[in-house]
Structures are given as C-alpha cells and as structure tokens.
Description:
By secondary structure, the protein is mostly beta strands. It contains two helices and 18 strands. It has helices at about 1-20, 125-145, and strands at about 25, 30-35, 35-45, 50-60, 65-70, 80, 85, 90-100, 110-120, 145-155, 160-170, 175-180, 185-190, 195-200, 205-210, 215, 220-225, 240-245. The strands form five sheets. Strands 2, 4, 5, 7, 9 and 10 form a six-stranded mixed beta sheet that branches. The termini are far apart. The relative contact order is 0.16.
Amino acid sequence: MKNILGITICLLLLSVQILATNASLSRKEINIDYNNSTKLILTNKADEIKAFEISLYERNIDEKGQDIKVDSDIENNFLIIPSQVILSPFGEETISITYIGDKNITKEKAYHILIKQIEINFDENNTELIQRSKDSLYAKLTVLTNLIKNMYLTQSNFEPKLEIINKKINDRTMEIEIKNSGQKRLIMGGDKPKLFFLLKDTDNNILKFRAKTAILLPNQTFKNIIEIPKSVNLKDQDISWEFSR
C-alpha cells in the first residue's frame, strides 16, 4: 500500500511540472491607461482541453522587494471579459480588461493578472488513495498551475522621481535609503538602465557604486548598503546618482 501511495504521489508531482506551463499570455508586462482597455491573448499550451479563470489583485512591494497583496475593490474597478474560458488544445482566446473605476487617479497602481487553471481532473481509479494524495498536494498544485503577470494602471504623463532620503555611515559601509516620490514605477537594473551612486575620493575622482536591482512603486522606499574604499572620505560626503547601462 505504501509503495502504491508513493508511486501515486510521484506521478502527481510530475504532473505539476506539466500543469505549470499550460497557459501563456501574449505580453510579458501589461500597462493599462485609465481611459482605455487592453487586450491579451491567452493560449492553452497543452494538447488537451483546459479551463482557465482570469482575475486581478492589487499589490505592493515591501522593503525586501517581496510582493504584498493589497485588499481593494477589484470587481467595481475592472471589467474582465471573459473571466473564465475553456480552450481546445493549443487554442487561443482574446481577453479584454477595462478599467471602470474612479478616473481621478494621482499615481500609478500595480496589479497581478492571475491565470488559474481550474477543474484539475485526477484518475477515478483508486478513489480513496487518489483523494488522500490530492488533499495533501492541493495547495501546491494550486500555486504551480497559476500564471502571474504584472499589470499597471497608469497615465502617459506619470513619471518616476528618485530621491535620497537618508544615509547612515558605519565604519566603511554606507546605508543609502532612496525613495520614489514620483507617480510612476521606477525600474533599476534588469533590462533597464542601472542605478549608480557617485562619490568622490580624496583626489576628487568620481567613484561609481552600483545599487541593487529593484522596482520601486510610487512612494516606496528601498535601502542599499555599499562598501566604501579607504580612499573615500565619508565625512561631509555629498551623494549623487546616475542611470547607465
């Protein structure tokens, strides 16, 4: 009995890897203007019929760069058509997302588009054994069969604004706290220009120190710790910055 259960769980775990890649969206990142709708192509990558549910939730980012789900009135702010689809093998469906909430937005808002595969079917044979395995793996299956994409509610005139709001010196390290006080997200690094802090050494040469890769949403702060060589006098040191490749 233990061997059968072990084999069943292994098979279910293997199926997780297949389920995780069953859906794809036509765009990596989605921007939606508050006056317009956006259209996406949802594709079933499996060779069998699959059902999907499309939903949204607002998010924020904490000081460690981790996503935090924000409670907000999604149903009265967005219209998703269709919100559930059944797709034939390798089939496609156009998904329309329209903002119907308050038009007086003062800063960009961040969301996740969640594509959840629904009605996962298991083998009807060995019902009791399968049910036990299903119950123990349900949460893991739910997470791994989700497809998540970033979406931003924005306006064309919104811009980010970087500020250094605090610095702390400890021996030969400096903690620099920055803030995005603008209206639009600020992306540092990745396929975007990287942020460098600029300091002067005792010979008045400018030294560059690269900041961590991060995304700063409006009003978000982020801390960087950089190691400073002895050639830099940390007292009364003015810090500037630049973005470069």
